């Protein structure tokens, strides 16, 4: 198992037993989705997003499956945009163009994403080594809820951009869910007789209703303990 995949699996399983890790993961995912929504808007205007350029930038441990889903979502988004762009009002077009032409929002999101990754890493370290002495956080290091980025844009315009970007994030999330359900249905059509229970569990997870029976919780805790011991073992 690769280190990136191992870390992703560990974070997801351990979050089921630790609220602080779960909270940090959700905040980080929210910021990453806003970045993806911004990239989706850039694609509409023929701009290749930074994450699509060949660099050594951390791709937030994005899996191959997630990459395929994102490709399909962007394709569908472009098709829908071409169909509906004539109906967009001037204020919406102005906000989109400002998001594309101005780097401030991307810089803010990237800075916030970096901060959330550091906070998630700290929460994981404290969870893995609860008996060790925890470092005192630097005063005011993460005191502000928002990352402050120097900008010439007035506050009202910034709020408009962020509100629109969050709406696009919600749309992106819905498109991703549709694509995952589509892929799941394709898998089910070829293996419905072999693994009906697994398919049912996957559908429940997509709908936000995982099977929380005693056996599932027991397996989850056992896997979390195993991952924890392996992570500690890697550091010793």
Automatic annotation (TrEMBL):
<dbReference type="GO" id="GO:0097546">
    <property type="term" value="C:ciliary base"/>
</dbReference>
<dbReference type="GO" id="GO:0005930">
    <property type="term" value="C:axoneme"/>
</dbReference>
<dbReference type="InterPro" id="IPR023379">
    <property type="entry name" value="BART_dom"/>
</dbReference>
<feature type="region of interest" description="Disordered">
    <location>
        <begin position="176"/>
        <end position="216"/>
    </location>
</feature>
<protein>
    <recommendedName>
        <fullName>Cilia- and flagella-associated protein 36</fullName>
    </recommendedName>
</protein>
<keyword id="KW-0963">Cytoplasm</keyword>
<feature type="compositionally biased region" description="Basic and acidic residues">
    <location>
        <begin position="132"/>
        <end position="144"/>
    </location>
</feature>
<keyword id="KW-0969">Cilium</keyword>
<dbReference type="Pfam" id="PF11527">
    <property type="entry name" value="ARL2_Bind_BART"/>
</dbReference>
<dbReference type="InterPro" id="IPR038888">
    <property type="entry name" value="CFAP36"/>
</dbReference>
<feature type="domain" description="BART">
    <location>
        <begin position="7"/>
        <end position="34"/>
    </location>
</feature>
<comment type="similarity">
    <text>Belongs to the CFAP36 family.</text>
</comment>
<feature type="region of interest" description="Disordered">
    <location>
        <begin position="124"/>
        <end position="146"/>
    </location>
</feature>
<keyword id="KW-0175">Coiled coil</keyword>
<keyword id="KW-0966">Cell projection</keyword>
<dbReference type="InterPro" id="IPR042541">
    <property type="entry name" value="BART_sf"/>
</dbReference>
């Amino acid at each position: 198992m690769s280190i990136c995949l191992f870390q992703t699996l560990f974070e997801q399983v351990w979050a089921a037993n630790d609220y602080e890790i779960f909270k940090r993961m959700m905040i980080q995912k929210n910021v990453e989705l806003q970045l993806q929504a911004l990239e989706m808007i850039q694609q509409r205007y023929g701009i290749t997003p930074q994450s699509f350029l060949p660099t050594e930038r951390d791709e937030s441990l994005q899996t191959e499956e997630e990459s395929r889903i994102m490709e399909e979502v962007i394709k569908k988004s472009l098709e829908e945009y071409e169909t509906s762009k004539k109906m967009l009002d001037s204020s919406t077009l102005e906000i989109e163009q400002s998001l594309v032409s101005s780097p401030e929002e991307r810089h803010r999101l990237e800075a916030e994403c970096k901060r959330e990754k550091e906070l998630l890493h700290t929460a994981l370290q404290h969870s893995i080594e609860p008996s060790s002495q925890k470092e005192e956080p630097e005063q005011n290091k993460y005191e502000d809820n928002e990352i402050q980025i120097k900008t010439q844009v007035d506050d009202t315009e910034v709020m408009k951009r962020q509100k629109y970007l969050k709406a696009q994030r919600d749309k992106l999330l819905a498109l991703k869910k549709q694509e995952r359900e589509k892929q799941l249905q394709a898998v089910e059509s070829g293996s419905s007789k072999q693994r009906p229970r697994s398919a049912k569990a996957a559908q429940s997870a997509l709908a936000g209703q995982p099977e929380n029976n005693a056996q599932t919780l027991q397996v989850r805790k056992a896997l979390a303990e195993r991952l924890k011991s392996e992570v500690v073992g890697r550091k010793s």
